[in-house]
Task: structure prediction
Amino acid sequence: MFENLQDRLGSILNGLTGRGALSESDVSAALREVRRALLEADVSLEVVRSFTDRVREKAVGAEILKSIKPGQMVVKIVHDELIEMLGGEGVGVDLRAAAPVVIMMVGLQGSGKTTTTAKIANRLTTREKKKVLMASLDTRRPAAQEQLRQLGAQANIDTLPIIAGQSPTDIAARAVQAAKLGGHDVVILDTAGRTHIDEPLMVEMADIKKKSNPHEILLVADSLTGQDAVNLARSFDERVGITGLVLTRMDGDGRGGAALSMRAVTGKPIKLIGVGERMGELEEFHPRRIADRILGMGDIVSLVEKAAENIDAEKAAAMAAKMAKGKFDLNDLADQLKQMQKMGGMGGIMGLMPGMGGMKDKMAAAGLDDRLFKRQLAIISSMTKAERSNPDLLKHSRKKRIAAGSGTDAADINKLLKMHRQMADMMKMMGGKGKGGLMKQMMGGLAGKMGLGGLGGMGGMPDLSNSDPKQLEALQKQAEAAGLGKPGGGMPGLGGGLPGGLPGLGGAKLPGLGGGFSGLPGLPKKK
Result:
């Protein structure tokens, strides 16, 4: 969502960090460009004006202009103010109340309220181990109650039985009572929406609030609606009193202005963001991490968390043991590619790696995108069990059959086999090392082959055997100490680009990252 803004701010701030000294006119010219970039991203005028005024006040002081690296200091100020605009510290859904905790979902029709209700319930069930009851109060939209019931059945979450003819306030009272009798920790009320804000809607919301006494009132807003979403938040807050915001469709190609404006305008925290349509694609909103992504500094903590969530620890341990013996067949390669897809694909992973966000377009142009993964998985799926276990069996006639079955050609199959051989050789090379964790060895080896001096200088990525939140935060600091993600620091060793150009990778090396993630030791088991 923030890609356009990231590109604009990145080019503006890179112009500052490249200079040895800055004058007040340099800073003012850069801030004019920042102001224009934010306005084009649909951030509200009052928020932009306040933001640039605060940055200017700090950036034109004598300390900045006379500092050793004034450009980097200005970037740091922009970064800090961006975090402040987004809300400072992240705030999650508050469950600190007597059970059952009542969460009331409000918003306009079509914003994704019912789906988000199910996603929150699923999140609380799987992560917080809470017993959740969902209830649909939408008696106007056809099949709205049935939709929530089906979502509950898919995720194995309780839903309030439907009784025809009941009013929304009566359903709310029955839901709270049923949650008490059923021993539920949380009850989520999915209220009705309208295509626009009107008086009957607000009266109904107020009546439901009075009847159910919710601990949290979450406004669900579509982030693609821009400044209308900000006005919506204002209206609901004035009439009902919201406690937080949930932004949906953050994976879309909108300009992101609503996300940047809503916290500043309403004073209410953005608690959750929807990043996809699947049940698990709901994330907590972390202002610091979003600011890091916008300024192209990456987000190592989120990358590690994604790895911990998506990688099966038992399979990872088995894979690590297999790799330590130097064994790596096409079944293993398919597993690596699937894990890469689960973590957001090549683009998603590169977007979270410090200094690499701007390389996504170049990689796509070189054919190193998620379509390559799908093509490779199709090729592997078209092979027999024996062929996947022993690629040496693949002679011309077999390749011809596989190409016909996967809709590819012999050249694609040869590229896949070449990539597999290179990765298998790397496994053998690392099998005897034993020290430092497979992930660290893998990343260190890849860094050397790909010319990523910064990663090589760090000795590879840190061993992620401990998933404690404090260590995750320490990872970010460790990366910054190495120049990764530091304001104005960029990715060390990438100044001249990758040796031989991106096409020279031949699609062979980067998928090896998946092998590294698969080999993470000590990650928590999936519950």
